[in-house]
Amino acid sequence: MQQNSNSTCDNEKNGGCGHEGNPGIEKLTGNEFSNIRNVIAVMSGKGGVGKSSITSILACEYRKKGHSVGVLDADITGPSLPKMFGLKSGVRSNGSALFPSISNSGIRVMSLNLLTANEDDPVIWRGPVISGTVKQFWTDVAWGDLDCLFVDLPPGTGDVPLTVMQSLPLNGLIVVSSPQDLAVMIVSKAIKMAQMMNIPILGLVENMSGAVCPHCGEHFELFGPSRGEEIAQKFQIPYIGGLPVDPNFSKLCDQGKIEEYESNLFANFIPENMTQ
Amino acid sequence: MQQNSNSTCDNEKNGGCGHEGNPGIEKLTGNEFSNIRNVIAVMSGKGGVGKSSITSILACEYRKKGHSVGVLDADITGPSLPKMFGLKSGVRSNGSALFPSISNSGIRVMSLNLLTANEDDPVIWRGPVISGTVKQFWTDVAWGDLDCLFVDLPPGTGDVPLTVMQSLPLNGLIVVSSPQDLAVMIVSKAIKMAQMMNIPILGLVENMSGAVCPHCGEHFELFGPSRGEEIAQKFQIPYIGGLPVDPNFSKLCDQGKIEEYESNLFANFIPENMTQ
Fold first, then answer.
1. Rounded distance, CA A184 to CA A157, Å?
2. Which of A155, A116, A185 has its CA nearest to residue B160?
């Protein structure tokens, strides 16, 4: 899908694809209601750097270019995507598969928060159950025909990132960082994990690259100087760009109107002629 | 330890205490090298709202008042405490217990990042192994004589928060939130989980309560208006206070000098006459 990804994934059946990053571990097959051509996961290692924000922006930008897009919320115990897209619970089923909720612009979303009675009900589950749910979001959801499915991973390098890297036919990962040294250290863990699992890293995005003061209009470094290009260079991965903190963005997230946010962060990342 | 906590924990032996939040599940006993009088966990549900920052500030404020303090980093796959305290790997052992690293001001810290060869080596473990490590940080670490041990939990409501709530003799939890609606929703999950597990919530802190522009000095709402008092009221828990984003704080964290940060966020929370 991108010049730096040497894996393509055109299998028209079952959302499966030919490349196997982890020999010996079976990739999951999809179902008869899904035909997913590309799968990209968004990862960070560190919490709160904005994985869900970046996943949503990426999905919206793809969608605006006319592609069919889905988002799988793999953050089972801290799901935030439905709220950003203004989606409430009420997932339908045909008896053999669950149907994702559909956003205003037509993005298909599946998240645990669409399945709980109240959006703030906690899911107190241990790792194997959580991983099993993520797998079911692949095997038991009727995604339909998708150019691209984005997978929003939870923080850390534990069960869910491991399951997604082992079991889903990923084209690759997008890594999200923030300018703090601390975030850099933990993002490095995520990059090393992906490399150990032979999952290509498609690019790095730096979120919270400073802020713009609404009073004087000056840009300042909120969490320290930008480090995105430096990390990208260190690990020899493409640098996609940086996104400053924008109170308007937070507001749109809280209102469930993330699709109204104007962004072209991924202008050079999204291929003009993606496999349709 | 606080007027709102109806559980006290004065057992002088083994770090154990009398109250059992979850009947039927055995609390872990400590070891002969530890005598821990109070245990407080810091939780959020959502990642990146600043649990580790708040845990560190709390530990430093306790320490400055002359108490003996330890910090158990239960964020196994995304540990950030050693970096904040300027501690590197090199934990010693006496053959039957591990000794925590000791910060400049004398805070004892145990974290997985003190046990890995490089601070950015990823720990690609599944839940049961991660939970087992957290338990070992209780049973196999020679904490010595501590007035208070603070436990920095990872994001989410999965394995580790569950293990800590079930297995450690917690006095209670401090919950960390941020002003976003999204964070409020996920923090509510954490609060509900604690309530379901009968763990007292000692108070709520709102992190990232706006920012101060270094150019014009104006305070502005970075992630939306403050919501801390509202959540505290909704769940009937004490509101400890809010902490604005401060580039100086991030800088001290990155330099490993968090102990130099001046704060009195917990001035009203830390009891004057704590059990010594």
1. 14
2. A155
Give the type of residue at B222: L
Q: Report the distance separating Cα B41 and Cα A60, nearest Å.
A: 38
Q: Does A155 touch chain B (CB under 8 A)?
A: yes
Cβ-defined contact of A186 to B157 (cutoff 8 Å)? no
The H or E element that residue A161 is part of is helix A159-167
Query: In chain A, which among 115-134 make CB contacts under 8 A with chain B?
Result: 119-128, 130-131
Q: Is A49 annotated as a binding residue?
A: yes
Chain A 44-73, residues with CB within 8 Å of chain B CB atoms: 45-50
Residue-level pLDDT at B274: 58
Report the alpha-carbon distance of residue A112 to residue A121 in Å, rounded.
10
What span, in angstroms and rounded, lies between the C-alpha atoms of A222 and A219?
Answer: 9
Give the strand pairing for A144-146 and B201-212: unpaired
pLDDT digits 0-9 by tens, A53-96 = 999 999 999 999 999 999 999 999 889 999 999 998 878 998 88
* Interface ipTM: 0.80
Choose the closest CB to B125 out of A155, A158, A180.
A158
Choose from B126, B187, B230, B251 for mutation: most chain A CBs within 10 A.
B126
Residue ranges in chain A whose pLDDT is less than 70: 1-24, 271-276
Q: Cβ of B211 and A211 within 8 Å? A: yes
Looking at CA atoms only, how far is residue A193 from chain B in angstroms? 6
Residue the block writes with tokens 């439905």: A82
3-state secondary structure of B134: helix
Task: Give Cα B45 distance to the centre of its chain.
Answer: 13
CATH number of B26-259: 3.40.50.300
Helix residue ranges, H only, A94-221 = 127-139, 159-167, 181-196
pTM: 0.85
